[in-house]
């Protein structure tokens, strides 16, 4: 039922919500897992499903761009109004791998609606978020009666984000003129809650490292050499245990030297977000709160750097123990970086730290991902950010908060290559189980997102015109 105070945009969205959710379900049924080679054809199907959806929605130009990997989808709907700003929406249509046996609400690619949520891989990250733009466009055109959007609208939806976007840099360079824009909207982030909505204004960067430690030349019977042979698992665990000090700070020398500390204003804005520790633990299912002393939980996950052990492998993790000292052990580390830090700087600091602290009785190899990313913050005084905040506040009928995203995104790459500021907009929630079993999207969050974006489409041209921005290209 439509609330009597609903805006015409929201009335349209509510009236068509079943169709929108059916479209999301149809897309989610395509298992577009980029990390598994067997799903290569599914990534093509996913791209072509999206291309057809965009064409049916009215985009006069829709095509696949050769990214050197899974296809990326590009769409363009020019605006007939002279001087209208150009907006490029960036997102992705690939999804994370699944462990089917751990899903309890539904099979990963058999979406179901239940108690105000849609369950399935990609419902929140990020197919649901991207479809919010499609739904927003339909509502915008229906309510305004326009033949084209009020902005020059472009979409770029790649198929490799979940594996680090290895071909995105080349794609952006090859098609820089085609993708030129006044502002980029990156739709692969979160908001705080349905009741207390927030605009994301920054993301952390990421440095992924793989450390392999080698002990004996082969797996050796433990009883034969125990007490006299190097154990790479023991050495690796000892090393990992030294990554943090007793105050939760990372021990790499110089690691914090260039970190930009939160300003009083930034800390005050974060403090406005209604945070309850017990609610946080319940929503994130993290069991407890820990981390760097002297900072709030939200400051730790959004404004401070961190390091996590993503995987630790050695010995016989499954099956019957063979009673051996393993020849090799390895760990995957993820550093989340913040403004002031650079990828090459953190890589060099880790190289030096491992060299200085690893035992001389083992050998090792340290490698880094070629797709590490830099942190990025939206210019706080950009007029498009103010319009986005106003659009969100209009949707939820209360002031919008400002938050950040603890994960990473190719925002810095997009901004630098296309010479345009990046806005963040997402509908994900901390309890949506991204990358885990039983991923879900909140239906109200999706509808709120589509309504906010429809308001943004209508209101952005005047704000950009008042700012006097030059056209792209």
UniProtKB/TrEMBL annotation:
GO terms for biological process: proteolysis. InterPro entries: Cyt/Met_Dipeptidase (IPR051458), Peptidase_M20 (IPR002933), Peptidase_M20_dimer (IPR011650). Keywords: Hydrolase, Metal-binding, Protease. GO terms for molecular function: metal ion binding; peptidase activity. It comes from the Bacteria. Transmembrane segments: none annotated. Gene3D superfamilies: 3.30.70.360, Zn peptidases. Residues 202-358 form the Peptidase M20 dimerisation domain. PANTHER family: BETA-ALA-HIS DIPEPTIDASE, SUCCINYL-DIAMINOPIMELATE DESUCCINYLASE. This is Peptidase. It comes from Planobispora siamensis.
């Amino acid at each position: 039922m439509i609330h009597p105070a609903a805006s015409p945009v929201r009335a349209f969205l509510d009236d068509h919500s079943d169709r929108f959710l059916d479209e999301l379900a149809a897309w989610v049924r395509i298992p577009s897992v980029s990390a598994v080679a067997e799903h290569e054809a599914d990534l093509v199907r996913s791209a072509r499903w999206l291309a057809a959806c965009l064409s049916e929605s009215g985009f006069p130009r829709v095509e696949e761009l050769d990214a050197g990997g899974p296809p990326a989808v590009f769409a363009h709907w020019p605006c007939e109004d002279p001087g209208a700003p150009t907006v490029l929406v960036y997102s992705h249509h690939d999804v994370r791998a699944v462990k089917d046996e751990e899903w309890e609400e539904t099979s990963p690619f058999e979406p179901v609606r239940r108690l105000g949520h849609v369950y399935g891989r990609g419902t929140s990250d990020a197919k649901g978020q991207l479809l919010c733009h499609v739904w927003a466009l339909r509502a915008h055109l229906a309510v305004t009666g326009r033949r084209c959007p009020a902005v020059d609208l472009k979409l770029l939806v790649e198929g490799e984000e979940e594996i680090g976007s290895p071909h995105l840099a080349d794609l952006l360079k090859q098609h820089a003129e085609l993708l030129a824009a006044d502002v980029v909207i990156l739709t692969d982030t979160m908001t705080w809650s349905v009741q207390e909505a927030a605009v994301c204004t920054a993301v952390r960067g990421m440095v992924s490292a793989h450390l392999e430690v080698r002990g004996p030349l082969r797996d050796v019977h433990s009883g034969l050499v125990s007490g006299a042979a190097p154990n790479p698992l023991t050495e690796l665990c000892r090393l990992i245990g030294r990554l943090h000090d007793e105050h939760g700070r990372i021990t790499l020398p110089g690691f914090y030297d260039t970190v930009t500390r939160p300003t009083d204003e930034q800390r005050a804005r974060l403090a406005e977000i209604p945070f309850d520790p017990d609610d946080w633990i319940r929503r994130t299912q993290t069991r407890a709160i820990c981390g760097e002393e002297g900072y709030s939980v939200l400051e730790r996950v959004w404004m401070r750097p961190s390091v996590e052990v993503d995987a630790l492998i050695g010995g016989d993790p499954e099956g019957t123990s063979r009673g051996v000292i393993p020849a090799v052990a390895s760990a995957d580390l993820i550093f989340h970086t913040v403004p002031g830090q650079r990828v090459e700087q953190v890589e060099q600091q880790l190289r030096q730290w491992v060299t200085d602290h690893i035992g001389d009785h083992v050998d090792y190899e340290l490698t880094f991902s070629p797709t590490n990313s830099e942190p990025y913050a939206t210019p706080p005084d950009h007029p498009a950010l103010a319009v986005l905040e106003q659009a969100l506040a209009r949707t939820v009928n209360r002031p919008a908060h400002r938050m950040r995203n603890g994960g990473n995104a190719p925002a810095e790459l997009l901004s630098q290559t296309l010479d345009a500021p990046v806005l963040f907009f997402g509908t994900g929630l901390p309890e949506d189980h991204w990358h885990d079993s039983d991923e879900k999207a909140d239906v109200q969050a999706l509808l709120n997102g589509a309504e906010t974006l429809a308001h943004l489409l209508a209101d952005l041209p005047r704000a950009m015109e008042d700012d006097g921005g030059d056209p792209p290209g």
